[in-house]
Amino acid sequence: MAFYSVAKPRVPRSGTSVVEVALILTVALVTFIGILDVGSVVFRLQGLVERARAGARYAVVNSFNATNVKNVVVYGNSAGTGNPLLGLTTSMVTATNTDQGDGTSRIDVKISGYQFQFFTPLIAGAKTLPSVTVTLTTESLGAPS
């Protein structure tokens, strides 16, 4: 008994590779751009937190002046000179000094309304990032304020 195998004719698959590459490349590019967007958002949020901390630290060691605190947050100096950092404006910054009644004050510096441009498809466009608030407590240590 002999077994004979009959060769099946090959079916041409000329377009399938192109379709597969297109699908995989689309998913890979969207994922890559999404990772870049997420990294950029984390970077910007950390930058905003650092700017708010700088303003709160300035307010803790100097006599409280909301305008000077806003300038420190936006420009990096109390005079308000130079280029704004991270595209901030003073209208995005709120600085308050609340007396605690026990010789201490609470300094609150808040950055809100910061716009970020996303590039990832389906969510592309300008979005407002969450507000960033930093609170520090002052102590006079007997020094006049």
The biggest sheet amounts to: 3 strands, antiparallel
Number of helical runs?
A: 2
Provide the spatial order of strands within the biggest beta sheet. 1-2-5
Mean pLDDT: 88
Order of helices and strands: HHEEEEE
Low-confidence stretches: none
- Tally of structural domains: 1
Q: Structural class of the secondary structure composition?
A: alpha+beta
Shape: rod-shaped
Work out the radius of gyration: 28 Å
Q: How many strands appear in the DSSP assignment?
A: 5
Query: How far apart are the termini?
Result: 108 Å
Beta-strand proportion:
15-25%
Describe this structure in words.
This protein is an alpha+beta fold and 145 residues long. The protein has one domain (20-139). It has helices spanning 16-61, 66-75, and strands at residues 93-99, 104-111, 115-118, 125-128, 132-139. The strands form two sheets. A three-stranded antiparallel β-sheet has the order 1-2-5. It has a two-stranded antiparallel sheet with strand order 3-4. β3 (115-118) and β4 form a beta hairpin. The N and C termini lie far apart (108 Å).
